[in-house]
Amino acid sequence: MDPVILTIVGALGSLGKMALNETAKNATKDAYESLKKTILGKFSTTTASALLETLERVPATMPAAQTAQTQLSALNLAADPEIARAASQLAEAAQLPASLQSQINLKIEKFAGIVENKGVANFDIKL
Q1: pTM attached to this predicted model
Q2: For residues 102 and 53, what is the distance between their CA atoms, to the nearest angstrom?
Q3: Distance (Å, rounded) from C-alpha 62 to C-alpha 68?
Q4: 104, 6 in Cβ contact below 8 A?
Q5: Which of the residue ranges 2-6, 12-16, 88-92, 123-127 would you say has the lowest mean pLDDT?
Q6: Is residue 34 part of a domain?
Q7: How many CA atoms lie within 13 A of 86 on its CB side?
Q8: Cα-based distances in Å from 21 to 24, 57, 116
Q9: What is the pLDDT of residues 15-46, one digit of tens each?
Q10: Residue (of 76, 57, 96) closest to 3 by Cα position
């Protein structure tokens, strides 16, 4: 799965579980809105917006959310350095487990570096 999508799903999950204190919730919401704005500024707002809205309202295990994740993954969000940075900030704000944050950041950095050098990258993050 695209590391940006993994970050979004993790952050939305932590918001939904109310696992964060109020300051962390606000920081996570702000970081998510920043990432969402960046994504919508670079891709068709109707398509990306609808897919992100699906992730926001449907549990990640539901078929509709899984379809949205797959369709968003096809956009190769992590290939864009600005989106990758915003996703890293979201992972930090959402206080995702350090092991998950490092996996996300490593995959984003590797993927962005490969894309910038015009290489090819295939990866999947297993939790």
Answers
A1: 0.70
A2: 26
A3: 10
A4: yes
A5: 123-127
A6: yes
A7: 23
A8: 5, 21, 37
A9: 766 556 788 788 889 999 999 999 999 987 78
A10: 76
Overall number of domains in the chain: 1
Residue 121 lies in a domain: no
pLDDT value at position 61? Answer: 76
User: pLDDT at residue 122 above 70?
Assistant: no
Contact between residue 93 and residue 99 where contact means Cβ atoms under 8 Å apart: no
Separation CA 52–CA 6 (nearest Å): 12
Residue of higher predicted confidence among 87 and 21: 87
Would you say residue 123 lies in a domain?
no
- Name the residue type at position 1: M
Query: Is residue 89 situated within a structural domain?
Result: yes
- CB atoms near residue 25 (< 10 Å): 16
38: Cβ–Cβ under 8 A, 6 or more apart, which residues? Answer: 82, 83, 86
